[in-house]
Amino acid sequence: MSMPGPVSAQQMHFAEPLPLRSGAVLRDYTLMYETYGTLDATRSNAVLVCHALNASHHVAGVYADQPKNVGWWDNLIGPGKPLDTDRFFVICVNNPGSCFGSTGPMHVNPDTGRPYGSDFPVVTVEDWVDAQARVLDRLGITQLAAVMGGSLGGMQALSWTLQYPERMRHALVIASAPNLSAQNIAFNEVARRAIVTDPEFHGGHFYAHGVVPKRGLTVARMIGHITYLSDDSMEAKFGRSLRAAELSYSTQEIEFQIESYLRYQGDKFSEYFDANTYLLITRALDYFDPARDYEGNLSSALSRAQAKFLVVSFTTDWRFSPLRSREIVKALLDNRRDVSYAEIDAPHGHDAFLLDDARYHGVVRAYYANIAAELNA
Known about the structure:
Keywords: Acyltransferase, Amino-acid biosynthesis, Cytoplasm, Methionine biosynthesis, Transferase. This protein has about 375 residues and is α/β, with parallel strands linked by helices. It contains ten helices and twelve strands. Helix 4 (about 215-230) packs across helix 6. The two termini are about 25 Å apart.
């Protein structure tokens, strides 16, 4: 297995406006992206990786000046890894509205000269796919070998097959769903309310006040984090372990290790993530529903897809359950599409798609080996 050199983030500026599904327009914007591996002579070995809620364009490798800043899917992507960058040219774009360098709420609104804040237009999964397609246009990539994503990234991969069916040959949809359930929308709404009711939120224009709604962001992350873990994994990791030797009989103090862990995760998140971005991205999750325009019929919605599919789910993922992945598989089979499905028996809940699991990684490795064989045929 060869070692990759340090990676570097790149940026692409667009003067031409991006029309959004809401009817608004994003004009004059910049997108951050990273690439790994080498584009072959026929430009046919490119794989687009789509990021989920709190991730970025930094999907693999490390930066020369930040050796501890490892890409969020580095265990899956790199030389000799399941998505092998010795064979494939991998691209990951930070979506507009995010807070990792692409134009988002923290950036200056050209119409006002002040940060967008809550005036940043609402973006959808479809808008992100359109933005990613523009990056590929600039890179001269007309057809992708594959599009891959987990969770919200999987929704983008699915949307790619409908928006640009001819521009991709394979879709890898991992730990995802064709839309959010009412329960999922409910979790997102509670998280958003925690943010917007924080006194430091200031209607989304907190930048002008020099503050951050950290309390709201912390609670939002704590709620989200609970839903990403399974009951079994939480029980195995923390159980009812106490933080101290004795109970303090306090309603305010931290008593249990799980409380301590959640507060730590929430505090850490509130240090680096933007509150307006959290609102935008959870809304994009809520809105995604390709069957909406087909009277709720997913089979009709997916009839446009031409790609071959790998769909992966995890048994203890209750936020994006295997049942939801099977809905996608059934709708594809109704259209006689080529689909492989793997349901991985893993204890980690939704977070399993980011973790090391030999069977999961084996499935992804085998699928990409087949794509590589196709390219060389």
